[in-house]
Amino acid sequence: MESPVPSALKAGESLRLSEINYSQDYRNGEKKWELRAKEGCFRDRTQMFSLKDVSLRLDPAKTTSFTIKGNEGDYYRESGRIVLRGEVVGRSDDGYQIETSLLAFSEEEECVETDSAIRVTGPFFHIKGDGLVIDLRRKTFSVKGNVCTTFNYGAF
Fold first, then answer.
1. For residue 104, which of 126, 80, 83, 130 has the smallest C-alpha distance?
2. DSSP assignment string, 95-113
3. Is 106 exposed, middle or buried (0-12, 13-18, 19+ CB in 10 A)?
4. Do 105 and 98 contact (CB within 8 A), yes or no?
5. 21 near 1, Cβ under 8 Å?
6. Which domains, and CATH codes, for the chain?
7. In this structure, how many other beta carbons lie within 10 angstroms of the beta carbon of residue 66?
């Protein structure tokens, strides 16, 4: 973890940092994910980092990378869960985009999930719905409910 300057602590905080860059690697040295934030604070009692202006880059082994940005987020160190909130936008390197208000990444399951309303845009479609699951291991995504899909047949 890198952060050039610690800041003044508020009640309940163990550590306050700015310009955070934290990454998790596979055993072979390839980057698994990278978390960046403008600022954040760590709470020892809950083992949680609360973050502002968050960017999470997911680089599953030998697959397309995905970058998710949110206004706020939390990293739960013990469970390996990262939750982004606010205006959450995710973009893949191969042209797909997700918009929602809340999105969670599970490090253990290599899965991105939300129960909030979503909008997914791809090269030839637009999807709106309630909730989403992206399984990075299996390279699949599914919308949980109330799905409305529009296809652009000209792009086929």
1. 83
2. S-EEEEEEEEEETTTTEEE
3. middle
4. no
5. yes
6. 15-155 (2.60.450.10)
7. 22
The alpha carbon of residue 63 and the mean position of all alpha carbons in its chain are separated, in whole angstroms, by 16
Spatial CB neighbours of 1, under 8 Å, sequence gap ≥ 6:
20, 21, 22
pTM: 0.83
Averaged pLDDT score across all residues of the chain = 85
CA 142: distance to chain centroid?
17
Residue 15 CB neighbours (<10 A): 14
CA 3 to chain centre: 20
The arithmetic mean of pLDDT across residues 63-86, rounded, is 92
pLDDT digits (tens, 9 = 90+) for 102-152: 999 998 898 999 999 999 999 889 999 999 999 988 889 899 999 999 998
CB-based contact 56:34 (threshold 8 Å): yes
pLDDT in tens, 82-112: 999 999 999 998 889 999 999 999 988 989 9
Q: Report the distance separating Cα 129 and Cα 136, nearest Å.
A: 20
> What φ, ψ does residue 154 adopt, rounded to 5°?
-65, -20
